[in-house]
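During the second year of the project, the team shifted from modelling isolated chains to modelling whole assemblies. The rationale, set out in the original proposal, was that interfaces cannot be judged from single-chain predictions alone. As a representative example for this report, we include one of the complexes processed in the last quarter. Its constituent sequences, exactly as entered into the pipeline, are reproduced here:
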Amino acid sequence: MGLDAARDKQRDAERKAEITNPLTGEPLESDALNKTVGELFDKGRTEDLFVNYYLENQNPKMAADIMLKHRSGKQLTDKEDKWLVTAGLKFNLLRATTESMKEALAGDETLDMIAQADPRIERIIAKHGKEKTAKLLVSKLDEKTAEDPKLLKQLIDNVKAAQEIANGPRARSADQVARWTLSTYNIPEDKYFEAAASSLTLKTGVTPETRKAFEKMVQENLSGLALVKDFFGFGTKEIRKRADQLEKRLETQRNLLHERDKHLAKVGSLMRGTLDPDINLAMQKALFEGGEIVHEDKRDLKTTADVERVAKSYEGDELKEEWKKSMVKDPTMQALFARYKNKLSRIPQADRDAFSERFATEMVARQKKHSGGGILLAVLKFLLPKKSDIKKQSEDIWKKVK
Amino acid sequence: MEESEIKQKLRAFLAADDQKGAEDFLIEHFNDLPEELQKDVLFAFYSETLEKKAAEANIVQLQEDGAKAIEALTKLDTDDVSAQ
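Output from the structure prediction step:
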């Protein structure tokens, strides 16, 4: 089935689909929703986002095969056709949702808030202009959300949370409330804070023991967080109900008070933790990463040296080595080796080109797996060869094989 | 500024292990950068700042919930327990 037939099938499916904004639940009205698969291949920005950012991240191999057939006018298999139609529908929904969120993500108010919090962005806006900066950001958001659809909700959640405390009063008053609560209810100091005071030398001279002790403290604070949520997440009435249940389970009033004091001490510890800059920061990190203290940073770009090392792995002899490895693993090439008795130079040009396309796709997919904080990833991406460069290098290697 | 020159400069910062220098260079020459790099640099700062702000908001929420929890737990003593 070709792209035209796929278009009809997609239209049918769209009529049946109930399309709402996944964040607000309101119906989505956008031209993006009505695009057929054929219309997505518009040789412009939509095709770029659909093919190079969306499809390639859903299934790089399938995307490469489909694009090869599309360019050469070949029919897609039923499986490819079905996959493409489904991907088209999901992509349309994602585009419509992203469109509806652009104001929240990169509108004037958000950009002002970010610039106020980050002098680097403030400097960029001063140099580049606010309108052009917003346009760049929107364009990048289109690409990032097409690459990783889950990112959209995460960004929206972060914008909402950031806006809530952007102007400071809520954050300042929460600090004051925490201090006032601790002093008013006379939450006792405990050993936890003595340990905290002695081990808070994180900025300099951190020993493994100190860090371990510190992480334990943050973890204890997080168990306090679970308690707060468990106890207070349902409101005051629920707390009393739970206290009643607790009382039924405990035989004496003394036990109940003991339980309550334990809870008070835990919540008190948690509150004190938020007032200490180092613990507060570690808690922010832990909360943000799902409530776990992450001992190991899984990003492969931690330093400038990492960026340099990874960039070199896509150049010269190192890339040639990858080319050889990829060829050995490639089932199509294995079949061709057998047919041409390992004489690479006899392999037809069309098959060479097809392998170069697969190899470049594989390398680009690998490039996308690198991750790092700050500008490290941006710098690496700039230094890495583009897909077209890798294809060209692959073709150059082919010319030299015997 | 040519793309090759920007790459050369960035490589020099990497060789000198100077991330801050690279960052300053990218901001200072932002208008000279290729659009792809402009977008990547901008998004790196944007997402980093958003994450930081959102994490701060988590703590604020925690403080507010904690204060209410302490108040409610303490009330159990005066309102409920001592009345028994």
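The CA atoms of residues 28 and 72 of chain B lie 53 Å apart. The radius of gyration of chain B is 25 Å.
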